[in-house]
């Protein structure tokens, strides 16, 4: 403790350099935070995908439709807690660049299947009361500045309403929220309204979500389900939601991984550069360290002094950087809703702090050990 | 004149002494090179993807889809509509044949080579005999053309490389259908190379599509016949369609992904650039500090403050240029032509493409690196010019 003033003086002996070293470290960790969020976005929230939820798709491809009658057959299967269907609507809100996911669901079983979507009882009631009602993620509400009760026109691309025209209209009945890693950019509306008003394709749905009793039996259940519909007009392919999300992420995949990999490599490069600057700051003082030794400071004390100094520089710079990254990630979404989950998970924050400590130790240790090994007389002569 | 001569003399001195300060100079060079690597390589993804998509369409072809459809996938046309569309004026004729093809477009799930349990959405296009003649850029490079009326298919080069059983002689299984691969084609690197093509009628049968199609692709008489073709169809009450030039359609399809990559690319590059500027400031500051006496000597000899400022900035620009060149070359060597695939957001289907490190990208990277060098040199240069001569001369 009594050495704190000494460390403080050493930190600020060359103010300009210290400030800019901190700035370099700050930018590096700001970048680290943003990269982690980008990486997370490209995994499409695979970490929160339910393990007890199976996705049952048409075997030929995920945009082929399945009959809605499959629901009862699934429901009757032992081991199945709940089965409900969803359909991709794929409409356009004013302009194609306003892309967001619109999904046709059956509200009650849907909410049971996805407990991670938090909806207030009033909103839920409003949604159940209004056939044209929609449940909208808070992220999406914010993006378009929508209000509860607002009427939202959406042009069908594949699904057209009966009669002439392309426009479907929905009322925002309520909103849902959830943890960081939950996709809050979706737009859900009711199947009963949809089925009654679509111009064709009555009784067809996109895919099924099946909640099972025992998550450890996922593989077994998947096989059982696919057997159930084998040799029918629409054969199925069932897997856990996690596998499905991973598969989807993999298809967008390569480029996300490559971008993050390149940037990570360069980030490490940047950290090495910062470390080398800090190392030089200590090397310059070799003769001074020898003086301290002459005065009776032990090698251990000197080492501690230097390490505390370099840790201080890294933690201040890096801490500010990571904090800024967190703020940026909270405040904006560079992907414009295309990658629905843009968040900085706490795990990566911890990883960032770990990196800072490693960097600080590395940058201080190398020159300090070198200096300690030198004989006092040699070190004094080096100036 | 003397002033300019002085300045050049000092710049030359600075540049010649860079090797003596290799350690600290490398901080700036490595920092800037890193930024340029990221900048150029990330944007080369967008450039490659964009050019694969743009290169897929021709201004001489028109794509007819149902009104409201945003992609081939969401479009749908009945057999009678197709017949009417084929009668529209402005379509090129080749002897008796009208160069217009009604096609189907479905997405099937195929396994990727070398990855277990992976599924990819692959476009399966049902073509008619005119389809090949419409598309000059498509040519068979292995095997033979599929025979119409059978379950034979031909595969694009990209699809063939990526998916299990998609090579000539293989059999693609999808649901209860089996498609025999008899040929492989290329399409100048366009998205068609990521597709599998079958006979449209066989596809209608396989997926209970009756006599319906999704799009009509027409070869126009000339590029200028587009308006005539479009106006005739939009005025015709028997069909309810929208018409786009094929190249514009594909350019629109690439937008979402390209702009995502560009946003991320620019965002990361700007953040890194700020870091690199700080790095360059550190380097130049160290350079100025270690040469304080030298600079003071020059000043004492009568060199003016401006030549010192310009020389420091010159050195910093040179470091920027070196960094930019290293970064550009590294990105080019590592990523130009690198093959990857991603998803087309309008159809959720896979598109294979190659990264493209274009000359424009390299130039932009170099300009960016010079800008970083310039900004990095500014503060230290002012500092150098303001060094008090007397005390700096005394400094050890």
Radius of gyration over C-alpha positions of chain A, nearest whole angstrom: 29 Å
The most extensive interface between chains reads:
A-B, 58 and 65 residues
Shape of chain A: elongated
Major sheet attributes of chain A: 9 strands, mixed
Helix content of chain A: 40-55%
Number of helices of chain B: 12
What report would you give on this structure?
The complex is a heterodimer of chains A (383) and B (396). Chain A is of the alpha+beta class. Chain A has 13 helices and eleven strands. In chain A, the strands form two sheets. Chain A has a nine-stranded mixed β-sheet, with helices on both faces. A two-stranded antiparallel ribbon of chain A has the order 2-9. The mean pLDDT of chain A is 86. With 396 residues, chain B is α+β, with helices and mostly antiparallel strands. Chain B has helices at residues 2-17, 22-54, 79-85, 130-134, 157-162, 200-206, 226-235, 246-290, 292-301, 305-335, 359-385, 389-394; strands at residues 61-66, 77-78, 93-94, 97-98, 100-111, 119-127, 139-143, 152-156, 171-174, 177-186, 196-199, 212-213, 215-219, 241-245, 339-344, 349-354. In chain B, strands 1, 5, 6, 7, 8, 9, 10, 11, 13 and 14 form a ten-stranded mixed β-sheet that branches. A two-stranded antiparallel ribbon of chain B has the order 2-12. In chain B, strands 3-4 form a two-stranded antiparallel sheet. In chain B, strand 5 and strand 6 (119-127) form a beta hairpin. In chain B, helix 2 packs antiparallel against helix 8 and helix 8 runs parallel beside helix 11 (359-385). The longest helix of chain B has 45 residues, at 246-290. Chain B is elongated and about 95 Å long. Classes of the chains: A alpha+beta (383), B alpha+beta (396). The interface between A and B is large, with 58 and 65 residues.
């Amino acid at each position: 403790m009594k050495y704190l003033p000494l460390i403080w003086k050493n930190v600020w002996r060359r103010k300009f350099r210290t400030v800019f070293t901190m700035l370099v470290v700050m930018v590096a960790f700001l970048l680290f935070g943003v990269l982690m969020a980008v990486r997370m976005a490209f995994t499409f929230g695979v970490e929160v995908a339910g393990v007890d939820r199976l996705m049952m798709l048409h075997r030929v491809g995920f945009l082929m439709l399945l009959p809605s009658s499959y629901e009862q057959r699934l429901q009757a299967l032992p081991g199945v807690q709940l089965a409900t269907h969803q359909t991709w609507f794929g409409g356009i809100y004013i302009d194609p660049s306003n892309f967001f996911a619109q999904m046709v669901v059956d509200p009650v079983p849907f909410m049971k299947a996805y407990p991670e979507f938090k909806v207030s009882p009033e909103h839920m009631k409003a949604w159940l009361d209004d056939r044209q009602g929609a449940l909208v993620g808070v992220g999406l509400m914010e993006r378009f500045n929508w209000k509860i009760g607002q009427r939202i026109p959406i042009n069908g691309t594949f699904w057209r309403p009966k009669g002439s025209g392309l426009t479907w209209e929905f009322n925002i009945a309520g909103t849902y929220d959830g943890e960081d890693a939950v996709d809050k950019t979706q737009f859900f509306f009711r199947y009963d309204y949809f089925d009654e008003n679509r111009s064709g394709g009555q009784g067809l749905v996109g895919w099924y979500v099946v909640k099972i009793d025992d998550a450890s039996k996922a593989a077994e259940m998947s096989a059982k389900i696919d057997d159930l519909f084998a040799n029918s007009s629409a054969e199925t392919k069932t897997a856990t939601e996690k596998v499905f999300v991973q598969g989807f992420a993999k298809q967008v995949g390569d480029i996300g991984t490559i971008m993050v990999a390149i940037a990570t490599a360069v980030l490490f490069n940047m950290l090495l550069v910062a470390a080398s600057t800090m190392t030089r700051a200590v090397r310059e003082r070799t003769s001074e360290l020898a003086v301290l030794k002459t005065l009776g400071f032990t090698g251990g004390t000197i080492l501690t002094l230097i390490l505390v100094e370099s840790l201080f520089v890294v933690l201040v710079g890096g801490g500010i950087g990571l904090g800024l990254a967190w703020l940026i990630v909270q405040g904006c979404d560079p992907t414009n809703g295309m990658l629905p989950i843009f968040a900085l998970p706490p795990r990566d924050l911890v990883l960032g702090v770990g990196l800072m400590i490693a960097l600080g130790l590395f940058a201080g240790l190398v020159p300090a050990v070198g200096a300690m090994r030198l004989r006092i007389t040699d070190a004094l002569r080096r100036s | 004149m003397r002033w300019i001569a002085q300045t050049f003399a000092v710049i030359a001195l600075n540049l010649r002494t860079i090797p003596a300060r290799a350690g600290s100079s490398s901080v700036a060079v490595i920092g800037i090179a890193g930024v340029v690597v990221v900048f150029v390589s990330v944007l080369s993804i967008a450039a490659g993807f964009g050019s694969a998509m743009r290169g897929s369409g021709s201004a001489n072809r028109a794509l007819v889809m149902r009104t409201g459809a945003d992609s081939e996938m969401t479009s749908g046309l009945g057999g009678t509509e197709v017949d009417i569309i084929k009668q529209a004026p402005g379509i090129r004729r080749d002897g008796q044949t009208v160069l217009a093809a009604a096609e189907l477009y479905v997405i099937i799930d195929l396994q990727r080579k070398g990855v277990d349990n992976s599924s990819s959405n692959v476009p399966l296009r049902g073509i008619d005999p005119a389809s090949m003649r419409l598309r000059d850029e498509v040519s068979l490079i292995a095997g033979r053309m599929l025979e119409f009326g059978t379950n034979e298919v031909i595969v694009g080069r990209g699809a063939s490389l990526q998916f299990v059983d998609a090579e000539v002689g293989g059999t693609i299984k999808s649901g209860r259908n089996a498609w025999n691969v008899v040929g492989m084609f290329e399409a100048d690197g366009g998205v068609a190379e990521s597709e599998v093509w079958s006979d449209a009628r066989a596809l209608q049968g396989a997926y209970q599509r009756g006599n319906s199609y999704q799009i009509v692709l027409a070869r126009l008489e000339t590029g200028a016949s587009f308006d005539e073709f479009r106006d005739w169809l939009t005025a015709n009450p028997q069909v309810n369609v929208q018409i786009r030039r094929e190249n514009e359609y594909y350019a629109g399809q690439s937008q979402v992904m390209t702009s995502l990559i560009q946003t991320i690319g620019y965002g990361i590059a700007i953040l890194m650039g700020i870091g690199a500027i700080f790095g360059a400031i550190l380097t130049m500051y160290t350079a100025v500090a270690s040469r304080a006496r030298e600079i003071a000597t020059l000043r004492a000899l009568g060199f003016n403050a401006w030549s010192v400022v310009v020389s420091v900035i010159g050195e910093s620009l040179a470091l920027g240029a070196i960094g930019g060149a290293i970064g550009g070359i590294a990105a080019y060597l590592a990523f130009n032509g690198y093959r990857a695939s991603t998803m087309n957001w309008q159809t959720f289907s896979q598109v294979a493409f190659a990264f493209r490190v274009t000359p424009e990208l390299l130039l932009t990277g170099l300009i960016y690196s010079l800008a970083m060098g310039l900004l990095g040199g500014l503060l230290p240069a002012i500092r150098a010019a303001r060094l008090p001569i007397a005390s700096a001369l005394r400094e050890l």
